[in-house]
Write a structure and sequence with these properties.
It is found in: Endomembrane system. The chain is 59% helix and 2% strand. Residues 1-10, 529-536, 554-574 and 576-582 have low confidence and may be disordered. The chain has helices at 11-19, 42-48, 50-58, 75-86, 98-107, 119-131, 135-144, 151-154, 157-174, 183-188, 193-205, 210-224, 247-263, 276-289, 293-305, 312-319, 331-352, 362-378, 386-393, 405-417, 423-430, 440-447, 454-530, 540-551, and strands at residues 29-33, 36-40, 66-68. The longest helix has 77 residues, at 454-530.
């Protein structure tokens, strides 16, 4: 019998002495698990564990007194429950301890093949009936597997949990069973980042929608990087300076950096998956945490793709430190704006085949106003150099700005905050704007602005004079054109009246001629009847005149002939005239 020295007596050994089944039988083996020693009985352990039986049988010592199980999955806590099981002491199996118990039982070969009702069979039944039956329990089991790797993966426990979680998450996303509908994203946020990545990959393989994946990623990021991403505003409480040398702070920042660099590769490829304010917050996190270049470039690329929706606040999130007291980074903003301009240029040329410098999309014009307002905000910081100020302002093509008023405001603020600039430096700052594109109010302000260099003031005044003169000339020309148009219209109206009068006159003459013909024909027929001659048949002209008299085109017209007397007329045949009726 091995008698341990008092110095080797551990707390675990004292605990086991309280529940050993046969305290009257002296212990004959000490099981070492890490720093803990358990005084137990070889025959009781060997009855349940085939692994311990083989260790005892294969030992070169005739009387084995110590067994080292330091590498057992689950460590001291798991082995303590294994020993209780061997001694028949009851304990509760839960979703939090079933994974280490199962791994320890498999490691010690405590299977039903070796002994009926063994621990491995008990834990397997619990996993099937409870452990992986719901999303909540599967998350708890998977979370407990983190300390059991790689053994938990070798016994297929990790894969089982990931498969169940991804299946139930996709089901809840499509057909919510609880309220709020996105409750399942909070469950996933409890996982460690490597386990979370496995679940997201499994959900993608199951065909989950990109918005479903994006929702899970946003929730996970907000929970794990709560200090850095707060309501997507970029605000942070308790954020230490990036130059702080505190070891705890550096350790925490390193952990956050690993989380961020693990999350970004999981993003779905669709560019509309995330709101732009969320992406800007993540990019500021990457800048603050000094993440890898690939991580920052990926975030910059995604912001560039939807930059048309950016606001001034989003760009300011990228620019300032978390305390808002100093400029953090302008290079990312410059690369993002430059990338968007190049994308718009290629799209415009490819789709429309036009000159990009002459045709700008609504998105490009909207970005121009946003960038000008952004420049006005950062211009108030004294640490902003002229090169950085100009470097961002010149990224926007001049034609994309309908007016340079916003840019003039930014320039004026910069000159006000930097009063020590000489004339050449002031001209360099003002070179980014075009004085000829200022509104009348802005030109009036510029002409009285003592902060502006003299050249810019002269430009504004000269343009006013040109505009005034051209305006007067344009007014005279407009009056002349209007008079010419009016005269031309009047002439056309007079011509139309004359044509109408001539037409009425011709029609009147035609009516009179037809009337004369009718009377002539009637007189001839009456004189013939008085004689004994035969009755004359109506001629073509007589029948035609009757028909025309019935039409009487002037009956309802403006020229009424009812007042004309039917006096005797000269029956002398008039000169034959030709009338064209069409």
């Amino acid at each position: 019998m091995a008698i341990p020295s008092p110095t080797r007596l551990s707390l675990a050994m004292e605990r086991t002495g309280q529940w050993i089944f046969s305290p009257e039988i002296p212990t004959d083996v000490i099981v070492t698990v890490g720093e803990a020693d358990f005084s137990l009985h070889k025959f009781i352990l060997a009855a349940k564990s085939n692994y311990i039986r083989k260790v005892i049988m294969e030992s070169e010592e005739s009387d084995l007194t110590r067994i080292d199980l330091t590498n057992i999955p689950g460590g001291q806590e798991a082995f303590e429950k294994v020993a209780k099981f061997c001694y028949g002491v009851n304990f509760e199996i839960t979703v939090h301890n079933v994974a280490p118990l199962h791994c320890a039982a498999v490691f010690l070969e405590m299977t039903d093949e070796y002994c009926n009702g063994n621990l491995a069979g008990r834990t397997e039944d619990f996993l099937s009936q409870v452990g992986v039956s719901t999303l909540h329990s599967a998350v708890a089991v998977l979370k407990s597997c983190r300390q059991l790797l790689p053994f938990a993966a070798e016994v297929n426990l990790v894969e089982r949990c990931v498969d169940v979680i991804s299946s139930k998450a996709c089901s809840e996303a499509n057909f919510p069973s609880q309220s709020p509908p996105n409750w399942w994203t909070e469950e996933l946020a409890l996982l460690e980042v490597d386990s979370f990545a496995k679940v997201i990959s499994a959900m993608k393989q199951r065909g989950a929608k990109y918005l479903t994946i994006a929702g899970a990623l946003i929730t996970y990021t907000e929970r794990t990087l709560r200090e850095l991403v707060r309501d997507h505003s970029g605000g942070g409480r308790g954020i230490m300076s990036s130059n702080s040398g505190d070891s705890d702070s550096e350790s925490r920042r390193s952990e956050q950096r690993e989380i961020l660099q693990s999350i970004v590769p999981l993003f779905p490829k669709e560019k509309a998956a995330f709101p732009i304010n969320f992406l800007c917050c993540l990019l500021r996190c990457a800048i603050y945490l000094r993440a890898s270049s690939s991580c920052k470039r990926e975030l910059e690329k995604r912001v560039t793709e939807i930059l048309e929706h950016v606001t001034v606040d989003d760009l300011l999130v990228l620019t300032f430190s978390y305390d808002g007291e100093r400029l953090l980074d302008l290079d990312s903003v410059r690369r993002i704006v430059s990338g968007f301009v190049e994308k718009e240029k290629s799209t415009t040329v490819f789709n429309a085949g036009v000159n990009f410098n002459e045709h700008f999309s609504a998105a490009m014009q909207r970005l121009a106003k946003t960038v000008d307002a952004y420049l006005a905000e950062i211009a108030a910081y004294g640490e902003l150099s002229i090169s950085k100020f100009n470097g961002i302002s010149i990224l926007i093509p001049g034609g994309a700005r309908k007016s340079d008023d916003d840019l003039y405001r930014a320039v004026d603020i910069y000159l006000k905050v930097h009063p020590d600039l000489d004339e050449i430096e002031k001209e360099k700052v003002c070179s980014v704007m075009d004085p000829l594109k200022l509104s009348y109010e802005a030109r009036v302000h510029a002409s009285k602005n003592k902060r502006l260099p003299l050249q810019i003031v002269l430009h504004a005044l000269y343009y006013d004079q040109l505009h005034l003169r051209s305006g007067m000339a344009e007014d005279k020309e407009a009056v002349a054109v209007a008079a010419a148009v009016e005269k031309k219209q009047l002439q056309a109206d007079v011509s139309l009246v004359r044509e109408n009068e001539e037409l009425r006159s011709e029609l009147m003459k035609m009516k009179m001629y037809i009337t004369d013909l009718q009377k002539n024909v009637q007189g001839t027929s009456s004189s013939g009847k008085e004689t004994t001659g035969p009755v004359k048949r109506p001629t073509f002209f007589s029948s035609m005149s009757k028909k025309l008299s019935k039409l009487n085109p002037f009956k309802n017209g403006s020229k009424d002939t009812s007042h004309i007397d039917d006096a005797p007329v000269d029956l002398t045949k008039p000169r034959r005239r030709r009338f064209s009726i069409s």
